[in-house]
From TrEMBL:
<keyword id="KW-0472">Membrane</keyword>
<keyword id="KW-0999">Mitochondrion inner membrane</keyword>
<dbReference type="GO" id="GO:0006120">
    <property type="term" value="P:mitochondrial electron transport, NADH to ubiquinone"/>
</dbReference>
<dbReference type="InterPro" id="IPR039205">
    <property type="entry name" value="NDUFA11"/>
</dbReference>
<keyword id="KW-0496">Mitochondrion</keyword>
<dbReference type="GO" id="GO:0045271">
    <property type="term" value="C:respiratory chain complex I"/>
</dbReference>
<keyword id="KW-1133">Transmembrane helix</keyword>
<keyword id="KW-0812">Transmembrane</keyword>
<protein>
    <submittedName>
        <fullName>NADH-ubiquinone oxidoreductase 213 kDa subunit</fullName>
    </submittedName>
</protein>
<dbReference type="Pfam" id="PF02466">
    <property type="entry name" value="Tim17"/>
</dbReference>
<dbReference type="GO" id="GO:0005743">
    <property type="term" value="C:mitochondrial inner membrane"/>
</dbReference>
<feature type="transmembrane region" description="Helical">
    <location>
        <begin position="51"/>
        <end position="72"/>
    </location>
</feature>
């Protein structure tokens, strides 16, 4: 019998066109915001249409970079039938190359593409965080959470013996022990609290 950890995960193809349209719209919106900021900070009065006329290239660059990254990453994953950092590197290279096209030199196209490819591949490799992630893609998340939940479960008696009672942690018979301690320390008889009527 093959264990679930040793067998390969099945790749499910994704819709590259729908994801490209969605990410183009999203990054185009970010580009529109950046263009509006550029228009606001302009020294001469260019009017509200300056967002599209004067700094409209910013919108186009942002939208093209987002759409290209999304399409290249998903198309690569669909063709290779694998979900790994190489897809992000390929998408990052094409996306960064678009940013380098503004400089109109081959070194800028290759440099921006390579820099973004390395950055996005490293980001994908570390599990989507810059602090690293030791996520094993072959382990089921439910099983992992169950293991964590049962690993740290300790008997209540052990916890109470280590840290003592109080602060919301009370063992069985706590009220009786508390009454006895108060009687010994202060000589006061504390009446037993009746159980709440419900």
């Amino acid at each position: 019998m093959v264990s679930p950890q040793s067998e390969e995960r099945t790749y499910h193809p994704q819709d590259a066109i729908a994801a490209t349209i969605k990410s183009t719209a999203l990054t185009g919106g970010v580009g529109l915001f950046a263009s509006a900021v550029q228009n606001t900070l302009a020294k001469q009065n260019v009017g509200p249409l300056g967002i599209f006329v004067r700094s409209g290239g910013t919108i186009a660059i942002f939208a093209a970079m987002g759409g290209t990254y999304s399409f290249a990453r998903i198309a690569s994953a669909n063709l290779r039938e694998k979900e790994d950092p190489w897809n992000a590197a390929l998408g990052g290279f094409f996306s960064g190359s678009i940013l380098g096209l503004r400089a109109r030199t081959f070194p800028a196209v290759f440099g921006y593409g390579s820099a973004l490819a390395v950055t996005l591949a490293a980001f994908e490799y570390t599990g989507g965080t810059l602090w690293g992630h030791d996520k094993d893609r072959n382990v089921d998340k439910y099983e992992k959470l169950e293991k964590l939940r049962t690993t740290y479960r300790r008997p209540a008696e052990e916890t109470i013996s280590e840290i003592g009672e109080g602060r919301g942690i009370y063992g069985p018979g706590y009220a009786d022990r508390r009454r006895e301690r108060i009687k010994e320390a202060y000589g006061i008889d504390v009446p037993a609290t009746p159980p709440p009527a419900s």
